[in-house]
Amino acid sequence: MRQFELESVEKVDQAVASQRDQRRDAFVAGGTTLLDLVKLDVMTPERMVDVTHLPLKRIEKLDDGRLKVGALVTNNELAHHELVKRDYAVLSEALLAGASTGLRNLATTAGNVMQRTRCPYYRDPAMPCNRREPGSGCAALDGINRNHAVLGTSNRCIATHPSDMCVGMVAVGATIVVEGPQGSREIPFEDYHLLPGDTPEKEHDLKDGELITHVILDAPRAGGQHYLKLRDRASYEFALASCAAIVELDGDSVASARLALGGVATKPWRAEAAEKALIGQPATRENFERAAEVALADAVAYSHNGYKITLGKQAIVRALRDATARTTATAA
Amino acid sequence: MAPTPYSRPGVGYCTPAAQAEIAERPSAAGGASAGNTRNVTLSVNGEQHRLALEPNAILLDVLREELGLFGTKKGCDHGQCGACTVHVNGRSVNACLMLACMQEGAEITTIEGLARSAGYEQGQHPIQEAFLEHDAYQCGYCTAGQMMTAAAVLNDRAVAADAASVNDAMSGNICRCGAYKNIREAIETARQRMQGES
Predict the structure, then answer these.
(1) ipTM exceeding 0.90, yes/no
(2) Same domain, yes or no, for B42 and B64?
(3) Quick one: average pLDDT of B49-54?
(4) In chain A, what are the domains?
(5) Residues 6 or more apart from A260 whose CB is under 8 A from it?
């Protein structure tokens, strides 16, 4: 494993001042992505800054109804928090569908936001990868791309975003708060992760020296919630397709809906057109199927992942069905 | 235990190309692998160990190679198998993805200290007894990690006692021999015994 320097900071401004170049100076908290990728020589920081002593470990209900989650809250703490289980069930379910007990005890909220793709070509420095090494090519385009994305791809990169938590956060709606050399700023969660386009190496909207300090969840939405994750085995595996759904009914019709997809896209994916297609429509299987068609309308299949278009639609239909069933149960 | 300098740069997986680059790269300390150690005190199984560690020392490697605690196993070294599971402040974690230098002040428990950490001064933790009784292993390589996760799961009120919840909570510990059925039975037996005690 390559050598690097390690220092520890106690305050957020020290952390911000410590990072001159985000590729060279890496913030480390849970380390479950970073150390994995440093061992593989995929990430090559010269210095790590231990941020685990920063005072960012609280979950706090704000006066406006939103929930402010500290960057260092672990995935397990967030998943099992009373308010998250009650008001953001889809997020709690998404978190618990990801990784394992041991990893979730280490992995943090901000670290999960920063999680890297599991594309095997990205993870192997011997292979070409535009995301890891700009301009080197994409081995997945004509390679073993069964696990790759069908939405949001480009001819430079088709890597799937691996997070479950982020899909849950897109569904409930959230804001990322960062602290940087110019002070603090807020980024809508959906704008944080970037599509690969021509610059797949640029994964997020974070400048040098900027540190995620919080994720603020929108005020709880009305309706039933459900996260469905489909994968090769029933546990401890990344999604082939997943869907976070929130459905609010007015009588038998959909009053409002939120739909987010995982496992099929290059970033945590909001299916906004599909949400709109549902509003005002009766909550029937036929209408769910129609929404699923809308959600995957722009999907592009590669040599081995065409099944994901079908699977993604089925995930949407089932997630909508189960979210709707919970709405009814709540009303009754 | 006497402190031992931790000086092997190659511990853990490293590509040949990276090895070569590291060997050639100059560092402020005069070499990529030597002289960059720091003094760290780790609390492991109730004992304080003063160690000289490199910044990139991984907790799993330090436990095994510096402290001689070979009960904790290295399987995949990438957080995919759970063989390296230990407790840090009572919670199960993957020691292969933790920097040892970041664990100062934490209470680390390995399988060697599990029974004592749970108040069983003599003999074994109920989960260890139950694994023996139920033959909950074949080759045994994953067993320490299985028991460490199981012991934490049994103490975790967030994990329900039904089979599906236990399966899910244990799913990060892979058993290539496929002893899962007996592992699940052992956990259930241990749960009943621990409830009987309290």
Answers:
(1) yes
(2) yes
(3) 97
(4) 224-327 (3.30.390.50)
(5) A167, A168, A170, A171, A243, A244, A268, A269, A270, A271
